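Narrative summary of target 7.
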Amino acid sequence: MAVIGLGLSQLNAQAPAEGKPPAGSRPPAAAPTADGSVTRLPAAETPRAPKPGTGYVPAAQPKDEMTLLKLVESGGWAMVPLGVMSVLTVMLVLVFLATLRRSAILTTHYMNTADVLLKKRDYLGLLAISSRHGEAVARVVQRTLDFATKNPGANFDVVKSIAESEASAQAASFQHRVTYLADIGTLSPMVGLLATVVGIVKSFGGLGRGLVGQNRDWALASGVSEALVATGVGLVIGVTAFVFYALFRNKVQRLISDLEVAASHVVGLIALNYKKREPSRAAMDEEF
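Modeled conformation, tokenized:
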């Protein structure tokens, strides 16, 4: 009996305590109930480490994504004039793409018609046709022939100067159109720079008023952010405007060259007609 009691005591010492799982074992995922069904036990959650010095676990914060509206709002007051400049830039680019074409300077149909009528010395007919055309060379011919028909005794040098002055005026109008893009390209970075100065003054002004702790950091960060956003937007608008200004300026130079060639051609035909008219005048003077 003593041997049997000693063996039972050793078995009880080796068995785990009732209600406690052995070390290193995982809790069961399901447990049977009295009616034989199985109930799933909730999975054990890994405890989060408390935030140092607070004693509580912070909740997961959603990511603050930067949208276009938030970017505009962070730019401050400078985004209003910069937005207006951006809209003007887009409008001017679209207008110049539609209007700065060779057909705005001259067309083959008009030049052929002008050649035929000038050789026939039909100035009134060409003047009527020129008034119905919108090409720049048509404006030059209309102005020249209008002066020549109203002043039939005028010298050819005077008529030539009228044609040259009108051609210069048409060329200047094309050049002045694209300079608006250059103005926007110059002003937009200046507005961004002004917003930068205002933002930095605002930031350091808050520091000078004795803000401490988080308020000081927030004031400095918000002012610098406003300054940088406005500066970046101003530079983007300025660079875009200058790029399109360079493209349209080169195109205008080519169009002006075509206008000068066409105007010289028309003036040359008018000069031939003046030379034919001068001998007839001399013959008439000899007769009288």
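The chain is about 70% helix and 0% strand.
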